[in-house]
Q: What sequence folds into this?
């Protein structure tokens, strides 16, 4: 996404590829891209703001400073690990916690992670140089082959496993939204929470997605520029039904943003990243 600034007030302006640092722990499996199928729902609590989006109460298409809430705490900024002691101004993409069996999974856009060689950290609820819920090291991440092989914009979604702290996962600290596939585009409004490169606190916008084509959806929210890639699209049921990315790496302008439509490829990728390491607890 291009760079853009947002004021604190409302503005008008599947196949699996493993990538990581500790060595692959899962056997690569191959499947072709499949059509959409039933929704995958995993236990979590919806927020009041997401419920407002679901009810269509809006306001739609207005980008505002995101207040600190239980829902926004699940969204965080990605940093190079070398910035963990000096976070201010160092983030480059957005990610969010999704429910998983081991409580250690975040979702973002594939283009945020592919090609990265340095270690990364995830900071949920990041604000103004402060990490209120800790700094969580990213251990490994998982990309679909469609993205890894040819930057297929219809495969621009990725999951990352973050290291545990004191035996607890990041979901134990902030909760996690459900990851859902097969939902109808535009059935409800979604709230997008994002960390712009130009700001050290999150912004949010609610809008109703519209189809771009069969595997892409779009929203019209002003000012979602650089750094917003990977931002979750959360509906009123507390489900992540998109992440900012896909077409044109999320959009060529800051006022129209895109996401992959989550289907069977995304569901398979979630299953592999959430489950394949579960039997490997304690391995390195």
A:
């Amino acid at each position: 996404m291009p760079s853009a600034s947002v004021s604190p007030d409302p503005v008008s302006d599947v196949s699996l590829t493993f990538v990581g640092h500790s060595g692959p722990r899962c056997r690569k499996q191959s499947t072709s891209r499949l059509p959409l199928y039933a929704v995958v729902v995993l236990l979590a609590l919806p927020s009041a703001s997401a419920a407002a989006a679901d009810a269509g109460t809006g306001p739609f298409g207005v980008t505002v400073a995101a207040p600190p809430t239980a829902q926004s705490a699940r969204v965080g900024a990605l940093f190079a690990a070398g910035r963990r002691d000096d976070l201010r101004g160092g983030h480059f993409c957005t990610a969010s916690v999704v429910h998983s069996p081991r409580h250690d999974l975040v979702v973002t856009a594939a283009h945020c992670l592919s090609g990265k060689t340095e270690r990364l950290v995830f900071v949920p609820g990041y604000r103004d140089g402060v990490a209120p819920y800790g700094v969580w090291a990213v251990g490994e991440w998982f990309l679909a082959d469609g993205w890894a092989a040819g930057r297929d914009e219809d495969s621009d979604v990725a999951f990352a496993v973050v290291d545990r702290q004191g035996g607890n996962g990041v979901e134990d600290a902030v909760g996690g939204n459900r990851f859902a596939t097969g939902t109808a585009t535009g059935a409800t409004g979604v709230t997008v929470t994002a960390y712009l490169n130009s700001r050290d606190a999150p912004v949010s916008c609610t809008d109703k997605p519209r189809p771009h084509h069969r595997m892409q959806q779009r929203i019209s929210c002003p000012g979602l520029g650089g750094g917003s890639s990977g931002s979750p699209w959360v509906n009123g049921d507390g489900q992540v039904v998109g992440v900012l990315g896909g077409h044109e790496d999320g959009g060529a302008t800051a006022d129209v943003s895109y996401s992959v439509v989550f289907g069977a490829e995304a569901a398979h990728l979630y299953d592999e990243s959430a489950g394949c390491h579960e039997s490997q607890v304690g391995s390195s």
Summary: The chain has one domain: 16-280. The CA atoms of residues 225 and 258 lie 12 Å apart. The longest strand covers residues 136-144.
